[in-house]
Amino acid sequence: MTRRVSLIKNLDWWTILLYALLVFLGWINIYAAVYNEEHQSIFDISQRYGKQLMWIGAAAVLAIVILIVESKFYSAFAYPTYIFMLILLVAVLVLGRDIKGAKSWFELGPIRFQPAEFAKFATCLAISRYVTQYNFKIHKIKSLFISGLILFTPMALIVLQGDAGSALVYSVFLLVLYREGLSGIVLFLAFIAALLFVFTLLWPKFTVLLIIVCTSLIVSKAYGLKWSAFVKAITMLGVGFALVWLVAKGLKVDVSNYLILVISLGICAVPFLVHTYKNKLKSVAWAIFIVFGSIFYTFSVGYIFENILEVHQRTRINELLGIESDPYGAGYNVAQSKIAIGSGGFSGKGFLNGTQTKFKFVPEQSTDFIFCTVGEEWGFLGSSFVLLLLLTLILRLLFLAERQRSAFSRVYGYGVACILFFHLAINVGMTIGLAPVIGIPLPFFSYGGSSLWSFTILLFIFLRLDANRLELLR
Amino acid sequence: MNNFSNRIYVIGGIFVLVVIIFMIKLFNLQIVDDSYKLSAENNSQRQVTQYPARGLIYDRNGELLVYNQAVYDVMIIPRQVKVFDTLDFCTLLGIEKLDAIQRLKKAKNYSYRRASVFLKQLSSEKYAVLQEKLYKFPGFFVQPRTLRKYPRQSAAHALGYLNEVNNKEIKADSYYSQGDYIGKSGIELTYEKDLRGEKGKKIYWVDVYNRIKGSYRDGKFDKQPISGKDLVSTLDINLQEYGELLMQNKKGGIVALEPSTGEILAKISSPGYDPEMLVGRVMSKNYRALVQNDSLKPLFDRTLMAQYPPGSIFKMVNALIGLQEKVINPFTRFECHSGYHVGSFTMGCHAHVSPLDLRSSIMHSCNAYYANTFRYIVESPKFGSVNNGYDVWRNHVMSFGLGERLGTDLPNELRGGIPTLKYYLKKYRRKNLRALNMISISIGQGELLITPLQMANMCAAIANRGHYYTPHIVKTIGKEKGIDEKFTTKHETSIDSSYFSSVIDGMEMVVTGGAGSTGGLAAVPGIRVCGKTGTVQNAHVKDHSVFVAFAPRENPKIAILVYVENGVWGSRYGAPIAGLMIEKYIRGEISDGKRWIEKRMIEADLINQSEEK
Fold this sequence. Notes:
Largest interface: A-B, 51 and 38 residues
Helix content of chain B: 25-40%
Strand content of chain B: 15-25%
Strand order of the largest sheet of chain A: 1-2-3
Number of strands of chain A: 3
CATH topology of the largest domain in chain B: Beta-lactamase
Radius of gyration of chain B: 34 Å
Structural class of chain B: alpha+beta
Largest sheet of chain B: 6 strands, mixed
Distance between the termini of chain A: 25 Å
Largest sheet of chain A: 3 strands, antiparallel
Number of helices of chain A: 20
Order of helices and strands of chain A: HHHHHEEEHHHHHHHHHHHHHHH
CATH superfamily of the largest domain in chain B: DD-peptidase/beta-lactamase superfamily
Shape of chain B: elongated
CATH class of the largest domain in chain B: Alpha Beta
Number of domains of chain A: 2
Radius of gyration of chain A: 26 Å
Number of helices of chain B: 21
Oligomer: heterodimer
């Protein structure tokens, strides 16, 4: 009895309140998105809002069950749960049903179930368990390798199912690892890599390379390269470029400026390396390494983009970057979504008055594009409110995570916060044209039992852990 | 607890930053940028054009000539088409399965999302059956249209036909859009703007599949279509049909006018065609057949577009000019010895007593008389030279509405041609014209070209004793609007009305003068018919038979021209047909005594038996 009382006392009711509010708002918007004058009863389970009401009820039951279970269970069974989910992910590849090109659903009678959604919390548990093991050292290659393996295995299986979007979610664990001591340089490099990816697609190769060279020179200077060496380096590069250019002209070989620059860089690198080796200039060595790394990276970006990504993925990225524009083809979803949101104005058209969503201009409006309904019917006020509500929840989770005594709970809390954030960023980002179209749901909002339950499980396990925050879990 | 605990600020900072960026973007989308609101409006409203009923056309006695018949275009939106029973569908529409597949392909090629015509102009009977089963065929719907229908199957040239607008017409008038119908000839063309009415529109809410979800703001911005105005034509459809019957198997034309108003009572161009041929699905096939494969050119409206020499019917004009210019008087006599001879020049004439006065010269159609008259006119010393004399003569001729477009309300009217002075000077390479150069136009031959409508109008001017009204074919437009002022304006000829009586005497003698008169077959018992024959000489084929007439002599009710190509003498076909038309119009039926003429005219076949001269 006392245990039960202390659980209720120790639960973070603020988080539960935010959760309930978000689920309620989500349901209201699903109702509006599929609203149809012929089916006005909100309990009509032939309609999505009726079904969602059922999912919500089930989610509430699920939440209570999760809270009743002893918190030690979650850390103790982290690996078995993870292994079980991996088995499910493999099984769905064999037994699953193909829906919209992704083989990621189990079908049991009327119920459809998407294991990828549930793999999130299992992976989150597993990584939390592994990172807090006594022999884990963040900068040991072996530790990094194994945590990478924990993340990449479900990711790879989900990609195999044809659901690249859900797989991308796991990249957000980089932030969790950062919190646990991963060098900030890794985050910075990831950021640079993303930037270079975009530049490579937007600009000619030569321009990108020039930017890389200039940036590394400037960074080297900032890190203490002497003026004389700086000038020398530029002169050498310039002379090298001119020479290679002249030779190419003389031999009447048709070579692009890009290639000439790469060749001259290669030539210049030799004396540079000798020089840095003699003088033990670590920063310059890094700069050279980064330049060549970037050249290799930009080259592989082009290759991956053209040869490995599928056509629809490529066009979605091209649409986002404005390289292609086809508002009636590949860009149709986003164009319609922006129209719906943009037409909402300051305070929206009012509940059930959205014309764009009601008349089905926006595809997937109750699932991936639910934010359109919010934007159109509730306007800037409503959509900002929803964004801030989600942000408040996520920040609250970060705050809760930091107050854990147990490292396991903390890592798990960060995991939950980061997963929610990734979904928010990508989902809302794609509806307003700031992120590529990746079909992942908006937490607590999008229609669908699997996603609602998976977020509920994710969140309430953490709340259960948080209720025991003063215990030290092993 | 942990030396990295302040990294919460980095991570939290990233989260906050992204949400701030999103809110800025939302602010821009929802508040700053207005274009999305406009796109949203266009996205979800659809205007549906409401087609007005085209105006009806009646004849002068209230007989319906043209009305509208509802047909149904079967439309398709390929995107919405689902698997359906093709056999059942094809039977309903009465098409082959292969044909259906091809039409489906064509629609898909046009647009996957937008509606296009699958099958044109389904009859209301077929539509009634289809309608019951249409729910079985998602993606198909039916759009009502109207087609013209002709209860009397007559007067095709005058009424004209409709066809889909072409790109040039769409560019010229923003009223039209692809698939609309427009008048292409006849009354349908001239009165297009009155007949077409005004399109309406209905605005609907539609969803992304173009499915109608309801009326936009309860129809507040809808516009009802305004039906086209009904027209009352000047035609007498009974006379028109009778004329077409008489002209069957003959080439040529008839124009009958009401002299006191200029109204066209009948206008026959033969051979003609059934107006139903150029309606609906059979149209393009028939059109090609009429244009390409028929050497008789049935689409060619001879009454407005054929330009013939008028022949002897032109002699009245010459006589009147002579009287006006006082170079002759009714009692002037000229010798004729089987023709007109000057030096080596000879213009032949047929045998008749000589000399003749004015009246008898018309009755006998004496060529010499008019050669002399013409010379007297142009060579008259008061004009100083033949050149001036010819100009005076030409102006007189043109005051009868010849050599210029009359400006009737039917399209494609040609002007005919009275040779100018310049033309002759150039032709003969002279500075000063000589009367003999152009003597043949004195008897309506030579370079003179006149359309049947102009000939009929010339006759009406004589019937009116010196004035005419521009011939027109529409009496009233809609309920209020009268016809154009130009059709109620009197046009005076340059001849004083006092000079007409002797010429008209001559014309009466043509019909009733007994022995030697040329138009006896035009006579109608109890009605004083005045007429004149013409026989237009041709180089290689048989002469054309021409006759103009008006009746009754006092307060004439009808002026008529009959032109039968290759009919040899004016007396052979022109005169009898004119007489029958006059009787039909004034009496309503043909008297027993003339039945034999009627029979002979109807049976005469000049097309299939025409031979070289």
